Amino acid sequence: xxxxxxxxxxxxxxxxxxxxxxxxxxxxxxxxxxxxxxxxxxxxxxxxxxxxxxxxxxxxxxxxxxxxxxxxxxxxxxxxxxxxxxxxxxxxxxxxxxxxxxxxxxxxxxxxxxxxxxxxxxxxxxxxxxxxxxxxxxxxxxxxxxxxxxxxxxxxxxxxxxx
Length: 163
Prior knowledge:
alpha+beta
């Protein structure tokens, strides 16, 4: 009924279709996969107060976090963060309570290594750069930096994983 040549061509086309779908699907989420080490609860306790970030996986293309800075019983800073991969682009969207009508500010991924993620938005007032660097599986350094009031400025927070 079918010639051997027709069967071979059909088989090759099916294989090509299968592999091309598989590759595009796995590649699309690769950038957010590089951020998996962020998932969990992170804390920095100091005399100035307690900083806490909790990262959760929403789906294959989105991670979300809540970040609090509490001094005694007062919440001095609260933000929600969404790390989202769309196509080949990974963005870090931070919405700080009480700033910009609580709307998120986007930072694009500019550097990604196995242990570091750097996001930048040169048009934002401050910070223009946000980075996370994994030191060990249960410690990281979060850093914000840029130009503030005409001068270079940066703050960094060493954080330990609590779970």
